[in-house]
Write a structure and sequence with these properties.
about 90 residues, alpha+beta, HU Protein, Chain A, 2 domains, 3-stranded antiparallel sheet, 3 helices
């Protein structure tokens, strides 16, 4: 089972004694900052948590699975995440 954005908002609201609307606005603003930073091609590092990195993927050969036809897939940007040491330690006990 995965935690949802709604679960996070509820937890923020309870822990910080905020109204749910305030917690939702805070969460939405944080996500918007993360999205706009990554969309601009910048990396995002959160100390003690990890680093989100934007990587360029080169164009490559591919194949249409329905027809078997060869095709060229466009280059693209992907986001990867590298976990911080402190988070690794916490996950692994």
């Amino acid at each position: 089972m995965a935690i949802t954005k709604t679960d996070i908002i509820e937890t923020i609201s309870e822990r910080l004694d905020l109204k749910p609307v305030q917690a939702k606005e805070t969460m939405e603003e944080l996500l918007e900052i993360i999205k706009s930073t990554l969309a601009s091609g910048e990396n995002l590092m959160i100390s003690g948590f990890g680093k989100f990195q934007v990587n360029e993927k080169a164009p490559r050969k591919g194949r249409n699975p329905a027809t078997g036809e060869d095709m060229l897939l466009k280059g693209r940007r992907v986001v990867t995440f590298k976990c911080a040491g402190k988070l690794k330690e916490r996950i692994n006990g």
